[in-house]
Amino acid sequence: MVYKKAAVIGYPVSHSLSPKIHQFWLRQNNIDGEYGLLEINPERFEETLKGLKAQHYVGVNVTVPFKERAFHAMDHVEEVAKIMGAVNTVVVKPDGMLWGTNTDGFGFIRNLHAEMPGKKIKRATVLGAGGAARAVVYGLLQEGATEVMITNRTKDRAEALHEIFGSKITVVEWDKKEQALEHIDLLVNTTVLGMEKQPSLEIDLKHLPTEAIVVDIVYKPLITPLLREAKRRGNKTVDGLGMLLYQAVRGFELFFGATPTVTSQLRAEILSS
Ligand code: ATR
Predict the structure, then answer these.
(1) Which residues are within 8 A (CB) of 235 and not within 5 positions of it... i.e. 6 or more apart?
(2) Cα distance between residue 246 and residue 18, in whole Å
(3) Coil, helix or strand for 168?
(4) DSSP 3-state assignment of 177?
(5) d(CA 78, CA 218)
């Protein structure tokens, strides 16, 4: 079998968990290959992408701050990445062409299915309107959600998502986010609030139905104050690690040609790192 080489590109990138995830799967699938870190000076990002073929890479993941720039540097972009305006997975084709996609929305939905099999989401509320929110909204609409309320500190960014995704989106003022909790099936936090070293998320869940699922895409800490409070009042919860692991599944398939599995052993290994 041909030796295959992939990496994650970012700046800084040493914090990225992608190498640990992919290396776990390379071992699990007995694949002769490697997955490393490429910390690239921002001035040299496009040049580095163009040089991947000569360096024998089959593909790269792209992380902060390059996802939007990667989008513009591709020879071909998959539809989902066009909607996202960002590329997080690049395949280097045998002829050197760069093919980009975005697997974040896929990761969110696959994780939700894994955690809550058979659950249909019709009405959802999304806290935040950054890149992660865009992926979550995309995934929810793909899966048949009929109404997604978006609330964000900077209202213009929520309005921008309304523009992109259309009439199923309702924008709710950040100060009135509690009003967007009634009659929903799912609440998702995509903001950085509740993450280590960030301010906490102030939200009163009293109007949230107890049947609603609460997802926090933050995974440091794994159990955020939002998830703890949701659990306490009887809501089912989904933590942020799964989305990270499932978004990597598609990249691994594209780079290494095998479908990896998300196991409790992988979760434990990533959490202990
Ligand atoms: P990502 O691409 O990972 O989603 P991002 O685009 O930086 O990252 O988005 C971060 C989200 O956290 C945004 O919704 C941001 O709100 P703004 O659009 O108003 O910046 C939200 N966020 C960050 N700090 C916040 C704070 N102190 N209070 C409320 N929301 C905050």
Answers:
(1) 205, 208, 210, 211, 212, 213, 214
(2) 11
(3) coil
(4) helix
(5) 27
CB-based contacts of 196: which residues, under 8 Å, 6+ apart? 220, 221
Provide the sign of the torsion angle of the four alpha carbons 265, 221, 231, 242, taken in this order.
Answer: negative
pLDDT in tens, 163-214: 999 999 999 999 999 999 999 999 999 999 999 999 999 999 999 999 999 9
Distance 119 CA to ligand 1 centre (A): 28
> 0.85 exceeded by the pTM?
yes
What's the 16 CA to ligand 1 centre distance in angstroms?
19
Backbone phi, psi, residue 16, to 5°: -65, 140
For residue 132, give the ligand 1 atom closest to its CA.
4
Residue 132 in contact with ligand 1 by CB distance below 6 A: yes
- At residue 114, what are phi and psi to the nearest 5 degrees? -65, -40
Euclidean distance between CA atoms 144 and 124, whole angstroms: 11
Dist CA 158 CA 154 (whole Å): 7
DSSP 95: T
